[in-house]
Write a structure and sequence with these properties.
Blueprint: H1 23-31, E1 37-41, E2 44-53, E3 57-63, H2 70-78, H3 80-83, E4 87-92, H4 97-102, E5 105-109, E6 113-118, H5 122-128, H6 131-141, E7 146-151, H7 157-169, H8 176-185, E8 190-197, E9 200-210, E10 213-221, H9 223-227, H10 230-244, E11 249-255, H11 261-269, E12 273-276, E13 279-283, H12 288-291
């Protein structure tokens, strides 16, 4: 396959920016009429979308932000009332509960964890895999499957399969319209990696590329694909192609060992590292004085 084009990263942009804070994601939402407001203050940048939430009125939602050095983000948190007046819902990353409470944030949702997969030399990536995961990859490599990739287009079977799976399991995925807008507004950044046996599709993954990071957006394997470990082969080919294109990290998304242990084992079997988020926190003028005096166990 022809290598993926590399991204040119401006020196002023932090290379490993989570998808919700990336300019690529902002362009996609703007195209759908739901723009992210972009802010910058003292070495810190963040994107926020506004939502109206009942009696709270307009709430600024900051997902996995702000972006910047740890010291600068700590200063931003201390001054958040000045930088972001009004109610703020912070889906936080790399913040201590004590710091969030001191800044007047109230805990809403307990922290979740992500699987972040370092990318680089193919031999080192392969050596970092769990033995069972690598064994399944070898079997898939010997099963006569063909792996290709293509830009995401409307009507792709992966989008239909993901929607059907979400209905069956009762969860709400990111709308397909967002992925399609991401593809339109960022040519070459929404890539489907797909395994087939002859004309039969067996497994596919949609990857969204943004700076030095990339994100697994959706993935699906058919029953026949699971029988031959096709997803292992698809993800491996994606890892190699993304690393060659200069990406440093592949975000495999949430890990929920209690509700989806099989998916958690699959993601962590790649050699991914568990990355704990800081939970969802709300700051509002009326709640801030109470939040500062919460018991230490709250928000952990």
């Amino acid at each position: 396959m022809i290598p993926l084009p590399r991204f040119d990263l401006p020196d002023t942009v932090s290379p490993c920016v989570p998808l919700p804070q990336s300019p690529e994601f902002a362009r996609a939402l703007a195209a759908l009429g739901a723009p992210l407001r972009q802010h910058a203050a003292a070495g810190v940048t963040w994107q926020a979308r506004e939502r109206r939430v009942g009696p709270l009125g307009r709430v600024a939602v900051i997902s996995r932000g702000p972006v910047g050095a740890a010291a600068d983000r700590a200063a931003w948190l201390r001054d958040v009332a000045r930088h972001q007046p009004g109610a703020v819902l912070l889906e936080a990353e790399n913040f201590a509960p004590e710091a969030l409470r001191a800044a007047g944030f109230w805990p809403l949702v307990t922290p979740a964890s992500l699987a972040l997969l370092p990318l680089g030399d193919a031999a080192r990536m392969r050596a970092a895999m769990h033995q069972k995961w690598r064994n399944r990859l070898v079997r898939a490599e010997n099963a006569g499957l063909r792996v290709g990739r293509s830009p995401l287009r409307d009507g792709h079977w992966l989008l239909r399969a993901d929607a059907a799976q979400a209905r069956a399991r009762g969860y709400r995925p990111m709308p397909a319209a967002v992925s399609l807008a991401f593809a339109r507004e960022n040519p070459g950044a929404a890539i489907v990696f797909e395994a087939r046996r002859g004309a039969e599709p067996l497994a596919a993954v949609l990857v969204l590329r943004h700076g030095a990071m990339a994100a697994w957006q959706i993935g699906h394997a058919t029953e026949a694909g699971r029988a031959v470990n096709a997803m292992n082969l698809v993800l491996w080919q994606a890892m190699v192609a993304l690393a060659a294109a200069g990406h440093a990290v592949l975000d495999l998304g949430l890990v929920n060992g209690a509700d989806a242990p099989g998916i958690a084992r699959f993601k962590l079997g790649t050699g991914a590292r568990l990355h704990r988020l800081s939970g969802s926190w709300l700051r509002h003028g009326a709640l801030a004085p109470v939040a500062r005096h919460l018991p230490l166990w709250m928000g952990r």
